[in-house]
Each structure stands twice: as C-alpha cells, then as structure tokens.
Specification:
The protein is 32% helix and 29% strand. By secondary structure, it is of the alpha+beta class. It folds into four domains: 75 residues, OB fold (Dihydrolipoamide Acetyltransferase, E2P) (Beta Barrel), CATH 2.40.50.100; 129 residues, Beta Barrel (OB fold (Dihydrolipoamide Acetyltransferase, E2P)); 49 residues, Dihydrolipoamide Transferase (Irregular); 221 residues, Chloramphenicol Acetyltransferase (2-Layer Sandwich). It is elongated, with a radius of gyration of 30 Å.
Length: 504
C-alpha cells in the first residue's frame, strides 16, 4: 500500500485545498495517472498516483491539508476491479459469461473530427456510467461543439471506463474514454436487449431530461432559475439554450403573479428581487484569509501624491507607433512606472525590504509583482530583475504574465518572491484607493485613472491630465520620511521622463 501525502509545492506554502477528485473512492488507478487537483493560494496543480492499484480517499474535496499530511492511499493490485463489477453483473444476470469472455484488450475512444473549423468539444452528458457494460454502436454520450450537439456511439462491446468528465472540454483527438473489450458481447446482449433496449432508451431520456446544456446552464444560473423548473425540448428532454432563454422570460412574468396572489405587493415598480448564492472557491477563501491577516499583522499606512501625466503622455504619443513597429509590443504606462519604481527602490532600500523574524532582509534587486485580475480572483505574477530590463522587455513580460494569469496557466515560480508590488485600479475607473500589502513585501504602489483637472503652473491655472498615486507601506520597516520621499521621487521621474532614460 502506498500512502499519498501533500507534496512540498513552494517555499512559502504550508497548506493546500483538495479542489477536486478526478477519481472516486474505490476506483482502480494506474501509475502516474492524475487522480486529483490541489489548490494553494497561488496556483492549482495535479496529484498523480505513485503506483497502480485501488484508490482509498481520506481527505474529501474542499478540505484543507497541511504539507506532508496524508490525503489518500493506493492499494497495490487491481483486485478491486472484479469486486466492483460483480454486483452489477449479479443485477444484470449474465455475470459469469461477461467475466469469462473478457479479452484483456482496451479500445481508446478519442474526439472525432466533427468539422473543419471546430478544434474542441465539450462532454455535455454521459448517458452511461463508469463501469457500465456497453454494446457496439450504442450511444454512450452527447458531445457539444460551439456549433452543434452530436451523439457518441461505443466503438466496441465491453465495459466503459470514463476518462473525460461532464462539462470537460477536449481538443480534437483528445481521449474521451476507454472500453475494456469483451468477447461475444453482441451475441449475449441481442436476445436480452430487445426488451431492455426500450428500458435503456427510456433511462437515457430520464437521465438527459432536466439536464441543461453548458450554454443553457449558464443562463439559468445567472437568472437564478432551477433546471427542474424548465421543460427541455432537446434530445431525451435535454434543456437547450432556447429553452433557458424562454424560461427566463416566463419566470420573470409568472413570479410577480404568484407573489401578488399570495401576499400584497411591497414593491410597485415591477423590479425583480431575485438572489442567488454560490459556494466560495478555495482560492477566494485563501485570498480572504490572507487579506485579513495583512490587516492584523502589519502596521499598514498609506501616503498619497499626484502626478502630471502630460509629459509622459506626450512622449508616449510621439513614439508609440515607432516603438510598436520596432519591438512588436505596445508602449504602455506600466514600463515607465516600473522603471521609475526601480530607480526609487535603489535610493530608498527599506521600501524594497521585508521582515524575517527578528531580521530585515534588504534586496539588492527589484522583483516587481504586478496585480492581475482574473475570473478566479486576483493573482500577482512577478517581473524578475526589472531594474535590468529595457522598456520593451518590461512591456513584453507584462503582456505575457497577464495573459497566462487570465488563462489560469501561471506557475508557482512565476508568482513567488516579489519584493515590491504595483496595482492599477485605474483600468476599472478608480480615482483613489488604499492598496493592501502583498506579504511579506513591505510596500505596494497604487495607480489610478487619469482625469483632467485644473492645476496651477507658473502662476497660471491650466488643465492637465492628473493621476493620483498611493503608496501603502508597513510602518514597522518603512518610516514616514522614506515612504513620502520614495513617492516624491517616483513623481519626479514620471513628470520628467528623460530622467528615466538618463537615470538621474
């Protein structure tokens, strides 16, 4: 028996969450087969079986486990497989025959080519369960592309072993399932499948009935409508996108009528009072826990200043086309802010330091973390040695990290070890905010939106594009003089961009 424990996944990670079990308790697994997904506060990674055998789950999905804690066991040998099949075969009666006729061959079923412009499909519904006996050409699943839904027939007689779960997206040629081939499956099933065939069809329909397609499910979730309240018009009673859209309208019309019949109206404007709740993801729980700990464990303060962005905007407008033509990447504001921050960090090293027990660690390099908003939550990938990069290298790295973050492909190494952070709330329209620290860093710079405001220049009131800057810092390391001086230095460099090039 092999005990599977939480592996070491990063220097600052002490625990992980079991995000999802890809195998069930009692399933037979192969060596190096992916059996679960583990999630830390920084990334999601896969857990593989150390040997072939039967899986025994100890930690359930959603539970948190410390590094080195036991989460499952894999008993060597596949002795559980026949035991699993025996009850099924006793129910369907031809047990001994099916067992004795097993050939040992396995048929792998892959996503077929379904159209020249279709590159991937989604497994919308399994009409058979894992371990079911299937006949050649029997419909076992419904597969959905962005253009159509089609049926997937079995390519052999045998026992179904599902690989791709429902709602999982696969490329053309991706592995969907395996069929453990049995001899004489068609011969033994023919006399008895004429009567059960109708049962099988009706059970397929019952299984599909009330199940929404991915697009329909999304619409119903957004509107807070249960699938059980919607009649499906698709194959086997499946709820289609059109059904969900119609249900959305009818639900909106009928609900006020029901309310009016039972109780006097409270709101007369006709507005909806729908609400929905959903379970907090493991990543969101971890983010929440870390943010609360920052407030409780640091002496965080914020200082503000404003920057006249006109010189920087004029320089960017003048050279952005030539910059793009030469380097193949756009010239944004992030490269200017990153360079300004690196120069200021060299002059005020406490802002680039961190506390480690009773010591303060001063970094001689600038690893700048950039906050990226993704569908799963906020992630903070790192630009390594930003002080030695050119403007085009910084812009290229920002684009690369932001894209990987939104695609959920960032590795743990890409999010560890930053010494200073930059966050840009201005892209969402924020005028001013107090950004929260990214531990164990001691400071973070907050950028905001650019708004034309009246300012006094040389005794004259003029209209200039102004951005407010915010620097949050840990007062245990950074004193007020250092924080204010750092932000003033960043302001000077941005208001006279030639200083960034000359380093003065």
């Amino acid at each position: 028996m092999a005990q599977v424990k939480v592996p070491t996944v990063g220097e600052s990670i002490t625990e992980v969450t079991i995000a999802n079990w890809l195998k069930k308790d009692g399933d037979v697994v192969k060596m190096d087969e992916v059996i679960a997904e583990l999630e830390s506060d920084k990334a999601t990674f896969e857990l593989t079986a150390p040997n072939a055998g039967t899986l025994k789950i100890i930690k359930q999905a959603g539970e948190t486990a410390a590094i080195g804690e036991l989460i499952c066991e894999v008993t060597e040998g596949a002795g559980a497989a026949p035991k699993k099949e025996e009850p099924k075969k006793e129910e369907s009666k031809p047990a001994a025959k099916a067992e004795s006729k097993a050939t040992g061959g396995v048929k792998e079923m892959k996503v077929p080519a379904v159209g020249e412009s279709i590159t991937e499909v989604t497994i919308s519904t399994w009409l058979k369960k894992d371990g079911d006996t299937v006949a050649l050409d029997e419909i076992i699943a419904e597969v959905e592309s962005d253009k159509a839904t089609f049926e997937l027939p079995a390519e052999a007689n045998g026992i179904l072993r599902i690989v791709a779960k429902e709602k999982e997206t696969l490329p053309i040629g991706g592995l969907i399932c395996r069929i453990e081939i049995t001899e004489g499956g068609a011969a033994t099933s023919k006399p008895k499948t004429e009567a059960p065939k109708e049962e099988s069809k009706s059970s397929d329909k019952n299984y599909a009935a009330g199940h929404p397609s991915p697009a329909a499910g999304k619409i119903l979730d957004e509107k807070g409508i249960k699938s059980s309240e919607v009649a499906g018009s698709g194959v086997g009673g499946r709820i289609t996108k059109e059904d969900a859209e119609k249900a959305q309208k009818s639900a909106a019309k009928t609900e006020p009528a029901k309310t009016a019949a039972s109780t006097p109206p409270v709101i007369t404007s006709g507005g909806s009072r729908d609400k929905r709740s959903e379970k907090m993801t493991s990543l969101r729980k971890t983010i929440a826990k870390r943010l609360v700990s920052v407030k409780n464990e640091t002496a965080m303060l914020t200082t503000f200043n404003e920057v006249d962005m006109k010189p920087l905007m004029d320089l960017r407008s003048k050279y952005k086309d030539k910059f793009k033509e030469k380097y193949g990447v756009g010239l944004g504001f992030m490269s200017f802010f990153t360079k300004a921050v690196c120069i200021a960090l060299k002059e005020w090293p406490a802002v680039n330091a961190q506390i480690n027990g009773d010591e303060i660690i001063y970094h001689q390099y600038c690893d700048v973390s950039i906050a990226v908003s993704t569908p799963r939550g906020l992630v903070v990938p790192v630009i390594r040695n930003a002080e030695s990069l050119t403007f085009d290298q910084i812009e290229a790295e920002v684009v690369r990290l932001a894209t990987r973050g939104r695609d959920g492909k960032l590795s743990i190494d890409e999010m560890q070890g930053g010494t200073f952070s930059i966050t840009n709330g201005g892209v969402f329209g924020s005028m001013m905010s107090t950004p929260i620290l990214n531990p164990p860093q001691s400071a973070i710079l907050g950028m905001h939106n650019i708004v034309e405001r009246p300012v006094v220049k040389d005794g004259q009131i003029v209209i200039r594009p102004i951005m407010y800057l915010a620097l949050s810092y840990d007062h245990r390391i950074v004193d007020g003089r250092e924080s204010v001086s750092f932000l003033v230095r960043v302001k000077e460099l941005l208001e006279d961009p030639s200083r960034l090039i000359l380093g003065v």
